[in-house]
Design goal:
The protein is an alpha+beta fold and 287 residues long. The chain contains nine helices and eleven strands. The protein binds ligand 0MY.
């Protein structure tokens, strides 16, 4: 069975990323112990925080195992035993954030990547999943023309009969990528993922410039709100339609797409299907 990876043959090489509960490491799976093994990305829980964390972890593995799409990182298997690790394909160019900071990409390539993220998200929604953590740091680069969504740690399934998913705050929420209804009522939906896509599109068009990143820019706009007041002040800012500014050299029609994603009314935000079409149309105007 190709999907079983024995821990004893996994050789840690370097860290690829770290979240609140998990860690992603580049490993070589080298059963012959001669350095000719394959590179894989291994995600593991950092510490078993008890509660239903282990159950959520096994659920995350099952979700990625069930996803097959060109714009979603490939599941390869898992390592057995008490502490289960998730084995994924390794993308040498790393996260979109690292890639974009490293090399200046033009507007057409930004839009190519943005459209692919929407295609991955449209597929995810076709299976009634909400991602809840869409951001440039969670998008991976296969090559100059292909990106994939690379982490599903906060992904939840929305039952057929429900419109949204309520999640109690887990403390480490990416609040600056959250839609206003997520902050106000912890209501997550397909539309709140569209809001997060708008913030991800902003990150792409700012080329992930640290001086322009969403937490920094939005905190500046909040003035001197402190501590737990940040969320309250952020809700008020977003309800007053105060949003992230237009990135330098960002085409007006692309900024308009972001603004549509940040509509306070979830039902007024575009679908990923319509975003795919709008982005393709804007890209064609560059041909
Ligand atoms: N280069 C790669 N090849 N395959 C991968 C799979 C996942 C990742 C990955 C995916 C996401 C991140 N973002 S992250 O913010 O570091 C993160 C968020 C949530 C949970 C964790 Cl453990 C890490 C960092 C790395 C990288 C690669």
């Amino acid at each position: 069975d190709q999907s079983v990876f024995h821990k004893r043959y996994l050789r840690k090489m370097r860290d690829l990323g770290e979240g609140h509960f998990g860690k992603v490491t580049l490993c070589m799976y080298d059963p012959n112990n001669d350095g000719t093994g394959e590179h894989v990305a291994v995600k593991a829980l950092k510490h078993d925080g008890g509660g239903n964390q282990h159950e959520c972890w096994l659920k995350e593995i099952d979700i990625l195992k069930s996803l097959y799409h060109a714009n979603i990182v490939k599941y390869k298997g898992c390592s057995g035993g008490k502490v289960v690790q998730l084995i994924m394909e390794f993308l040498p160019l790393g996260s979109l954030k690292e890639y974009i900071i490293g090399c200046k990409i033009g507007v057409p390539q930004c839009l190519l990547f943005a459209g692919q993220i929407c295609q991955g998200m449209e597929y995810l929604q076709s299976k009634r999943y909400i991602h809840r953590d869409l951001a440039a740091r969670n998008v991976l680069v296969e090559n100059d023309n292909l990106v994939k969504i690379g982490d599903f740690g906060l992904t939840k399934h929305i039952p057929e009969e429900k419109e949204y998913y309520r999640v109690r705050d887990d403390g480490e929420s990416p609040v600056f990528w959250y839609a206003v209804e997520c902050l106000r009522e912890s209501k997550f939906s397909f539309s709140s993922d569209v809001w997060s896509f708008g913030v991800t599109l902003y990150e792409i068009l700012t080329r992930c410039d640290p001086a322009m990143n969403p937490p920094k820019k939005l905190t500046e706009m909040l003035g001197n709100a402190h501590g737990q007041m940040v969320v309250t002040a952020l809700i008020s800012l977003l309800e007053r339609r105060k949003t992230l500014p237009c990135p330098k050299d960002c085409p007006h029609e692309v900024y308009m797409l972001m603004k549509q994603c940040w509509n306070v009314e979830p039902g007024q935000r575009p679908s990923f299907k319509s975003l795919i079409e709008s982005i393709a149309t804007i890209r064609q105007s560059y041909e």
